[in-house]
Amino acid sequence: MNLKKGLFERRPEPFRVLHQEERAAQDLSVQLSSMLPTYYRTRPIVFVCIGTDRSTGDSLGPLVGTLIEEQDIKPFHVYGTLDDPIHAVNLEEKLSQIAAKHINPFIIGVDACLGRLKSVGAIQLSEGPLKPGAGVNKELPEVGEIHLTGIVNVSGFMEFFVLQNTRLNLVMKMAKTIAQAIVLAGDSVERRNAVSIEKWREELQQ
Question: 90-125, pLDDT tens digit by residue?
Fold first, then answer.
């Protein structure tokens, strides 16, 4: 569960799209691909999807992880699925495993969060790390250089109860939109990388 940023912390406004918009996945993918490294072969792109299937609202992350793992996402690596979730108990261990496996990875955190009533259903893409741990009373490591969050319900009162009673229908629809955007961004990054490699080869031959 994503923790809100500090009151006086200034960062660029996040890119936001409502999951039910007609071009939500396409628009999100364009913004996401523009924020990713060009050469994924020299700097691995890793999605860390945080959450648990034991809470409907907090299952957004592992649902996204499962959906993108089931598809062909050659430029990307994904951690955190329904089968092998990443949550407060094992987050530090999983991040250590990722650091050991990938050299200088570009990490994107994915998580659910709570927000204002009018923002429920919105998906946000923000610069800076994800700060998981709201409501668990535990200091958890920050995750990623950028992060994706889905506002699944309303914050402010009995947040564990709110998460437990979030509609799975909404969470699933948001997860599908995020997963589709990630797959489209993967296609875009792969095409961009192929063009860059071809240009590099042409320069070598000159």
Answer: 999 999 999 999 999 999 999 999 889 899 999 999
Does domain 15-205 match CATH 3.90.1300.10?
A: no
Q: Which residues contact 63 (CB under 8 A, 6 or more apart)?
A: 51, 82, 171, 172, 175
For 24, the token pair is 């939500």
pTM comes to 0.86
Computed on alpha carbons and rounded to an integer, the radius of gyration of the chain in Å comes to 17
Residue 5 has pLDDT above 50, yes or no: no
Residue bearing tokens 């939109």: 177
Classify the phi-psi angles of 102: left when phi > 0, otherwise alpha if psi is within -120 to 50, otherwise beta: beta
* C-alpha–C-alpha distance, residues 27 and 173, integer Å: 16
Q: Which residues of 68-92 are buried (b: 16+ CB within 10 A; e: fewer)?
A: bbeeebebbbbbbbbeebbbbeebe
Instruction: Give kind and range of the element (H or E) at residue 25.
Output: helix 24-34
Chain segment 46-94, per-residue pLDDT in tens? 999 999 999 999 999 999 999 999 987 878 999 999 999 999 899 999 9
**How does the average pLDDT of the chain come out, rounded?**
86
Q: How far apart are CA 179 and CA 103, in angstroms?
A: 25
Q: Which residues pair with 130 in a beta bridge?
A: 143
